[in-house]
Write a structure and sequence with these properties.
The protein is α+β, with helices and mostly antiparallel strands. The chain is built from three helices and seven strands; from the N terminus they run ααβββββαββ. Strands 1, 2, 3, 4, 5, 6 and 7 form a seven-stranded antiparallel beta sheet that branches.
Length: about 180
Amino acid sequence: MDMMRTARYATVLTALCLAFGCGTDRDIVPDQRTAIENYLNSKQITDYTIQDGVYRFVPNDDRETYDTDPAAAPGDSVYFMFEEYVFTSSGPGQLCYTNKSAIIGADTVINPQFWPLDPLGVRVGSTGLIAGLTRGLPGCRQGDSVVMLITSDLAYGDHPMGVVQRNKTIMMMLNILEVKK
């Protein structure tokens, strides 16, 4: 009787997973990468890099000081302002998190009373941040405006986080204020 019940549970679980998308990262991530690449191609963004699994581009890399601005390396401290969105095939979707008071309005789910609005400071390589951000920070230069597209396996994975549902790709927009060696 227990084997029969177990088989029924397995059948129901399989049906639920098919209906609600309980795929593994192996199944989800290639589709997310394709969606990211289609988005980048549709926006004619060709100067992006893929750094340790993170898609990254710097729209202001044509500034005069770019080559001489300090670049973040493991162990350096980086201070930045950021916006994090759920990524959609057309770009940024719902705002998830930010430390930019100027974009927090009445229509956002972010409560500035509980969210610090100061520049975020992290040590590259030893942060408590999501893997995608940790992997995408090396090489970012002081003064960069960086856009990172991070697949779910390097973001929150199968765990919902605030307004970010499980297995979602995120888009982060960072303004690198300072890199301290």
